[in-house]
Write a structure and sequence with these properties.
Length: about 270
Amino acid sequence: MIDPRTDRVLITGAAGAIGTALRTGLRDQWAHLRLTDIQPVRDLSANEEFVAADIADRPKIESMMQGVRAVVHLTGLIGNYTLEDLFRVNARGLFDVFEAARLAGVERIVFASSNHTFGFYPITEKVSPALPPRPDSLYGVFKVWGETLLREYLDRYGIRSVSLRIGTFQPQPIDQRSLATWLSPGDVAHLVDVSLRHPDPGCMVVNGYSNNTRLKVSKADWATLGYEPKDNAEDHREALRAQGFDVDAPDRDEWEWPEHGGSFVRRPDQPVR
């Protein structure tokens, strides 16, 4: 069991949006947070230490794993990228973090996976982590690979993990789709916190969403993990309406996208050479 009073937790991608939310949500309860990113992390608290590093720098990654009991792996490219950069960060970088953690004796990994691991499922089907993955992009494919790698790390090495299939992470819902897919800053911090504290999650995969009225995925293992999200995208419905979004169509089960992956499903992927 990971102890927030004594055990050191490493957070990769700590300068990003989710990393910033985790710092806000975790640093009052976790005594030893080690942060890393290629970008600087500012305004460190007394219980935070920062190590600047590129995820491709394997020796640096191995060095910062010393004395770490658990890793929260957030680093990843999304949006516009070359195939080479996607592989360097989301595939090779992911492997190097997991393998460096294994070699250092890390006992728990919390992995920022994605709802794009099942993006090709129709929105009419409530998706559970028990269903086979249907990634909607190379980005989603590498997230599936990370989940699969963690299964091998449990079976072969006994490393416990939780893979979080994160939905639309934003301070507030940003469009019609996020009425179903939103994950708030407060809820993501709570989700990571319980993923670190759980005595034995095995190799768990959970859907990472807030408690949205229009949720289109299962809540499988939320209760087992101890995840009780507080926020609901529905509370921001009128704000979205004021921005010109059609927030009434979902009342009739009419969504602007036919699959869980939204625009990712129709977006041209990077050419493979």
